[in-house]
Design brief:
Blueprint lengths: L3 H13 L2 H8 L3 H15 L4 E4 L2 E4 L1 H25 L7 E7 L1 H18 L3 E7 L5 H6 L5 E7 L10 E15 L12 E4 L5 H12 L5 E5 L3 H9 L5 E4 L11 E16 L6 H17 L2
Parallel strand pairs: 3-4, 3-5, 7-8
Antiparallel strand pairs: 1-2, 5-10, 6-9, 6-10
Helix pairs in contact: 1-2, 1-3, 1-4, 2-3, 5-9
């Protein structure tokens, strides 16, 4: 019988690509991960890992096993969720991940509703970039998270997760004037930290307009971004929720680009009472905030 815990390590290796990354995410040592994967190979009776120097890749048999693992883990999550429905009161811990503007505009109101309706449910919030949320959900350090994609930054479906639409935002060009995006090829730009979805969106939107932006400043807080625009330090792309408190002198020009936020959780957990309560509270809060 294959060990589910070892299968989970193999699944994470398929996503994270290195044993060191798997060890860091799941609080193992690299040697422990290697030992567990070697034991899984013995249990499976076929090679699962191909080693070339320090690199490790998954064999076709391992990739097929990962696909089965996604189903197995989802069924176990569903079984846990069904057991939880037999309790008369929501207890335990619910871990929610959200990006900064959503914490202010969506999550705060949802937390009030959840705390009022379920006072024994312990709520824990982590603020993080949406690009990091899928890994955190798979690693079970989060139970529910808000994930995003932009028109220019599509996100591939993750077989370990289920997601549902939450809301959509306009993306604005924030500048001191009303010039179109294409006229800012020589302007200095303000963008988020490289590697974030917002940074990638800025670069790709500009490339679609025919130029590569000259990024002078990096800031992840949209209030800071707009303050820099107001100070004449450059132009930026800012989504609707990040532009609600716009300083004087900044012009917001709507673009056809959209940012879409989805509510994500592990497959099989959607009907867990705590996750279901969070889904309801977040949808209601998003509806009020996006009117």
């Amino acid at each position: 019988m294959l060990d589910v815990r070892k299968l989970r390590l193999l699944r994470e290796l398929a996503h994270r690509e290195t044993i060191a990354a798997v060890a860091e995410a799941l609080a193992y040592t690299p040697s422990a991960v290697s030992q567990q994967l070697a034991a899984l190979e013995r249990e499976a009776g076929v090679p699962l890992l191909a080693r070339t120097g320090r690199r490790v890749t998954l064999t076709p048999a391992a990739l097929a096993l990962v696909a089965h693992t996604e189903t197995i883990l989802a069924v176990l999550e569903q079984a846990t969720a069904e057991l939880a429905t037999t309790r008369t009161e929501l207890t335990g811990t619910l871990r929610i991940g959200a990006f900064p503007t959503a914490v202010r505009t969506i999550l705060a109101s949802a937390l009030v509703a959840l705390s009022t309706a379920h006072p024994r449910l312990e709520l824990r919030v982590t603020e993080l970039d949406p690009a990091l949320a899928p890994d955190a959900l798979r690693a079970e350090t989060l139970d529910v998270a808000l994930v995003q994609e932009y028109d220019y930054v599509p996100v591939a479906a993750d077989p370990a997760l289920h997601s549902e639409p939450l809301f959509e935002e306009i993306v604005y060009l924030a500048a001191r004037g009303t010039e179109p995006l294409a006229d800012h090829r020589e302007s200095p730009w303000i963008a988020s930290t490289p590697g974030t979805l917002c940074h990638t969106m800025t670069v790709r939107a500009c490339e679609a307009a025919g130029f590569t932006p000259r990024i002078r400043h990096h800031a992840d807080d949209f209030g800071t971004v707009l303050a820099l625009v107001a100070a004449g330090q450059g132009v930026a792309l800012v989504p609707e929720f990040g532009a609600r408190e716009c300083p004087a002198g900044v012009v917001l020009s709507p673009l056809p680009t959209r940012r879409r936020t989805r509510l994500a959780y592990r497959r099989g957990t959607g009907n867990h009472p705590a996750v279901r309560a969070a889904r309801v509270a977040l949808r209601e809060s998003a509806g009020r905030s996006h009117r």
